[in-house]
């Protein structure tokens, strides 16, 4: 069952990921109060990985794809209820705690699994990569592997700042 995860949910995951690009619009439009850079990094990480998985059928049956989808969905289940309550101006300390305290380590694990997925995909890309192209695709993926921890570090740093800001705001509101 784990190996057939992509065949079972790949289309729905792809559609949901396409719609998640709206998150960037929601932040820039002011509908959602969140930092743009971490969300942009998160959405782009998912887009790149999902495109790679769609293009490489050999990767679709790997167990890391199932684990990756599980982590992505868990992360979204932790994030979206908190964001919804914030948009409705009814923040919850419990949701805030779960959003950040559970979300950050799961995000780091998700990024590590992304790295494993990209690393496992490299042998399948090499034979099919065109050497006549200006940029060699395996080289780009190795560069992506190097930049992945940098992007994740920026995201975690921003999320920790966001957590502190939300906690201070809730603390001030409770004092009133």
TrEMBL record:
Q: What is this protein called?
A: Very-long-chain (3R)-3-hydroxyacyl-CoA dehydratase
Domain of life of the source: Eukaryota
InterPro entries recorded: Tyr_Pase-like_PTPLA
Q: Where are the transmembrane segments?
A: 100-122, 134-160
Q: How does it sit in the membrane?
A: Multi-pass membrane protein
Which family is this protein grouped under? Belongs to the very long-chain fatty acids dehydratase HACD family.
Q: Which reaction does it catalyse?
A: (3R)-hydroxyhexadecanoyl-CoA = (2E)-hexadecenoyl-CoA + H2O; a very-long-chain (3R)-3-hydroxyacyl-CoA = a very-long-chain (2E)-enoyl-CoA + H2O
The UniProt record lists the EC number as 4.2.1.134
Q: Where in the cell is it found?
A: Endoplasmic reticulum membrane; Membrane
The pathway to which it is assigned is:
Lipid metabolism; fatty acid biosynthesis
Keywords in alphabetical order: Endoplasmic reticulum, Fatty acid biosynthesis, Fatty acid metabolism, Lipid biosynthesis, Lipid metabolism, Lyase, Membrane, Transmembrane, Transmembrane helix
* Annotated function: Catalyzes the third of the four reactions of the long-chain fatty acids elongation cycle. This endoplasmic reticulum-bound enzymatic process, allows the addition of two carbons to the chain of long- and very long-chain fatty acids/VLCFAs per cycle. This enzyme catalyzes the dehydration of the 3-hydroxyacyl-CoA intermediate into trans-2,3-enoyl-CoA, within each cycle of fatty acid elongation. Thereby, it participates to the production of VLCFAs of different chain lengths that are involved in multiple biological processes as precursors of membrane lipids and lipid mediators.
Give yes or no: UniProt keyword Lipid biosynthesis: yes
């Amino acid at each position: 069952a784990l190996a057939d995860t992509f065949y079972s949910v790949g289309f729905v995951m792809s559609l949901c990921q396409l719609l998640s690009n709206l998150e960037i619009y929601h932040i820039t439009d002011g509908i959602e109060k969140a930092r743009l850079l971490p969300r942009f990094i998160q959405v782009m990480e998912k887009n790149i990985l999902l495109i790679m998985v769609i293009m490489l059928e050999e990767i679709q049956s790997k167990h890391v794809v199932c684990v990756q989808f599980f982590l992505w969905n868990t992360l979204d289940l932790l994030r979206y209820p908190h964001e919804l309550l914030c948009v409705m101006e009814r923040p919850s300390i419990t949701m805030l705690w779960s959003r950040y305290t559970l979300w950050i380590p799961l995000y780091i694990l998700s990024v590590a699994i992304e790295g494993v997925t990209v690393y496992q995909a490299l042998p399948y890309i090499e034979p099919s990569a065109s050497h006549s192209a200006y940029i060699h695709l395996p080289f780009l993926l190795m560069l992506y592997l190097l930049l992945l921890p940098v992007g994740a570090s920026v995201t975690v740093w921003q999320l920790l700042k966001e957590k502190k800001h939300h906690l201070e705001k809730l603390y001030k509101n409770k004092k009133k």
